[in-house]
Amino acid sequence: MSPSIQTYNMDLLDRAAIESLVWEALRKKWPRDSYYSGASSYRAGFSDICMSVAELAVKKQQIMPLKTPAFQPYTRVVSEGGQRQIASVLWALVAQEILYIDMSVRNSTGSTIFAFDITDYGKQVIASEKPIPHDPDGYLSYLKTEIPSIDATILTYISEGISAYNHRLYLSATIAIGCASEKAFLLLLDSYIAFLQSPKEKESLSKIKNQMIKRQFEAFTKSFNGHLSDINKELTDGIDIVFNGIFELLRQNRNSVGHPTGKAMSREQVFASLQLFVTYCKRIYALIDYFGRDEFR
């Protein structure tokens, strides 16, 4: 008797949903919950990866579960559209050097079969506890969730930065990240000026708003440091790292590559910048929210 075929229908899931599922399955080493679960390993064949992703989609209630047939035997497969989407995501991860294709695996007949495995760089990426640019929708969704009021211009630039990074355009990515960082700072400066109680201070800072960003930053930090005792201590703890560390790093990198200096940016440097931007942006918006409280108006 030929086995009956049960199909996980993943055709209606879009690329972003598939990408997120693949990343989660990879982080868990392609877990299998079906009747023939394998050992937990990064190395896996395409069909096994498809099955892991499908079973994860069922767990998340993104697709319908399959009913166990009354008559045995039976086999489970993923719909063709779902397989194409998963394959597209896997090839992208190979292009980004997260995964590689291992051709040393042989089946019971001695024939070579293909399996996906993770690179050393890929292991570093998935070990990160912060959102990763290799999952663009996950990264942007995290920012929107953590910062519901995040400015659309910031999202546009950081999205461009992520796209450039994933296409190995590291100079372009650095410029886009720097623009996103600068926009966040300018929003902070506006909220800080509104927060100040002294008309003289308000006027002084307002006058430098059209000057070079370095000049604006220096004037802001000088004033800000003079008001540390007036600001919630939780927001000022470690603020020097955020301002003179992260903001200055992103600004200087942008300036260096925005001119024909010949400076190059490595994949690792841009990856770190995208992760640092999350920390930086969350703290900037925490301050913006604080300065915008009604009690200071």
Q: How would you briefly describe this protein structure?
A:
This protein is mainly alpha-helical and 297 residues long.
List keywords for this structure.
297 residues, mainly alpha, Arc Repressor Mutant, subunit A, 2 domains, two-stranded parallel sheet, two-stranded antiparallel ribbon, 12 helices, elongated
**Can you give the mean pLDDT?**
88
Proportion of residues in helical segments: 55-70%
Structural class: mainly alpha
In the residues, how many domains can be counted?
A: 2
Stretches with pLDDT under 50, minimum 5 residues: none
Could you tell me the radius of gyration in angstroms?
25 Å
How many strands, what sense, and barrel or not for the largest sheet? 2 strands, parallel
The total beta strand count reads: 4
What is the chain-wise order of helices and strands? EHHEHEEHHHHHHHHH
**Oligomer status:** single chain
Terminal-residue CA separation: 78 Å
Tally the helices: what do you get? 12
Strand arrangement within the widest β-sheet reads 1-2
Outline type: elongated
SS strand fraction = 5-15%
